[in-house]
Write a structure and sequence with these properties.
516 residues; mainly alpha
């Protein structure tokens, strides 16, 4: 590997270690939240909270107006070429999210009841919960854009600490407090959203400091008024991304709403719980995306396609290598992990297996979406998400009435595969980034050897229980760690090893000095 390419891999590794800890914490806290909901409110009450979160998340995808991704695309470029325009760009990124989120809040609060009566029938408890948490939508939208802007300015730490650790950790604690006080499921939904105002305020303060730091380093004094060139660039990139962001959230959450409308809140509670395991398994992919998206933007701006190819292939190997065993354990011990959430949730075991299989296929794409988006082709991303959403909705409408949550799981599994396939083909055509099948196949083989034999042996000897899952997990981690150590150069893990020896902050400073 060329020295420059090796440096990019080490930089991704350093940042990935930091964001990986954050993504892991977020996943654990998300499952803890589901555990609190299931144990406290049962399937029906958990379904009410999860359906309200689903509506809120789809609205948030629209409220962000694509400005979070736009921040990651444009700010690294301005940091290296025009630091005096950063301040105006930040304002151009934040204001649309604030304005649209306020408009959506008013729409949800005043027009949701008649809409649900005529289109998607939702329980009155869900409608009331959505109207309540919608009041906090502007805080969430501004927070997300502000944290994305700090990523674009070269620091993954604020996004990790605030967005991936503090907010997810506060949510189950807030819901638990409501439970102890005897609150309803609707109040539990409100507790889920309560950390957002404080998180937004902190995110804005951190962002202001980052902007000022870049200006001082460059010796410039920025203006709040964005330049016409920056404003035009933001609009061109954000408009299709705005659309696709809302579509992405609809792909993730619409099936929870639809299951609740067709099969009831209890089924939505089970399916919503099952589907959150998919998010938990994307820890590695999420961690890598947080770090490498700004690098993709900067490298593509410099037309360093070879460096992008190496960085993409290397992180793809890591994503498949470390992400697949998580889904493998979920698949082998599906009844066990779902039993943690209370009686009745084990009915979703088969759906969990289907979703995990689809998620493994999704991992094969790595962060190919980020490459396509950071190349400036947000319009193609919008096209892809439209196709995937249309297929997802059609499949759900056909399969859910017949198969229930199994139909919803099958629809989402195929949607994940289709999403990765479309982006991979388009990135190969437009950017020249190819899918490295050999490296993916080898990483998949290593992951399978790590998880399959040990899990089968434990199940045959000990049966399916929490203790046997812990034993199988220990075996999996041991085999995977030993294989990674002895084959670290082929798997390009030497960069991770060196990164672990260096403070992550040092990596951030290196990135900042190069205008990331």
């Amino acid at each position: 590997m060329k020295a420059e390419h090796a440096s990019e891999a080490r930089r991704a590794a350093r940042g990935g270690l930091v964001s990986g800890l954050g993504a892991g914490t977020s996943a654990v806290m998300g499952l803890l939240l589901i555990l609190v909901l299931g144990r406290s409110f049962g399937e029906y009450g958990a379904g009410i909270v999860l359906q309200s979160i689903a509506v809120f998340s789809i609205a948030l995808g629209i409220a962000r107006t694509g400005m979070d991704t736009t921040s990651v695309w444009i700010l690294p470029r301005l940091a290296s070429s025009a630091p005096g325009r950063i301040r105006g760009a930040v304002l151009a990124l934040l204001l649309p999210a604030l304005a649209v989120s306020i408009a959506l809040t008013l729409m949800l609060y005043f027009f949701l009841p008649p809409l649900t009566e005529n289109l998607v029938p939702l329980p009155p408890e869900v409608v009331e919960a959505v109207r309540t948490i919608a009041l906090l939508l502007p805080f969430a939208a501004v927070m997300m854009v502000a944290l994305a802007a700090t990523r674009g300015l070269g620091s993954i730490l604020p996004y990790t600490v605030i967005g991936a650790v503090a907010v997810p950790a506060a949510r189950p604690l807030a819901v638990l407090a409501v439970v102890l006080l005897g609150g309803s499921a609707a109040m539990g939904a409100l507790a889920w959203a309560l950390p957002l105002p404080v998180a937004m305020a902190i995110a804005l303060l951190v962002l202001a400091g980052r902007v000022r730091e870049h200006e001082l380093r460059a010796g410039v004094s920025g203006r709040w008024r964005p330049s016409p060139t920056v404003s035009a660039g933001v609009r061109r990139f954000a408009l299709p991304r705005w659309y696709s962001s809302g579509v992405e959230q609809a792909i993730v959450w619409f099936d929870v709403i639809l299951v609740g409308a067709i099969a009831g809140a209890g089924a939505a509670g089970i399916y919503g719980t099952v589907s959150r395991f998919v998010t938990a398994g994307l820890i590695v992919s999420t961690a890598m995306r947080m770090v490498i998206s700004p690098r993709f933007s900067a490298l593509l701006e410099e037309r360093k396609v070879d460096a992008v190819q190496t960085l993409y292939s290397t992180t793809l190997t890591w994503i498949v290598l470390f992400g697949t065993p998580i889904y493998g354990l979920f698949m082998f011990f599906a009844p066990t992990v779902l039993s943690w959430f209370g009686p009745g949730f084990s009915e979703g075991a088969t759906a969990l297996i289907i979703l995990c299989a689809g998620a493994v296929c999704f991992l094969f794409g790595g962060n190919i979406d980020s490459v396509l988006t950071m190349s400036g082709r947000s319009g193609w991303m919008a096209f892809n998400k439209s196709v995937v959403l249309a297929v997802n909705i059609a499949a759900n409408l056909v399969l859910v009435p017949r198969w229930g949550i199994l139909g919803a799981a099958s629809a989402w599994a195929f949607s994940m595969f289709l999403d990765a396939l479309l982006a991979s083909v388009e990135t190969r055509i437009f950017v020249g980034i190819r899918f490295d099948a050999g490296r993916v196949a080898y990483a998949l083989m290593v992951a399978a050897v790590s998880v399959v034999p040990g899990s089968l042996l434990v199940l045959s000897l000990l049966g399916s229980s929490t203790a046997s899952l812990a034993v199988a997990g220990l075996i999996t981690v041991t085999i995977l760690a030993l294989w990674c150590w002895f084959d670290r150069y082929r798997l390009r893990l030497d960069g991770l090893r060196r990164a672990a020896r260096k403070p992550a902050v040092a990596g951030s400073r290196t990135a900042e000095s190069k205008g990331v």
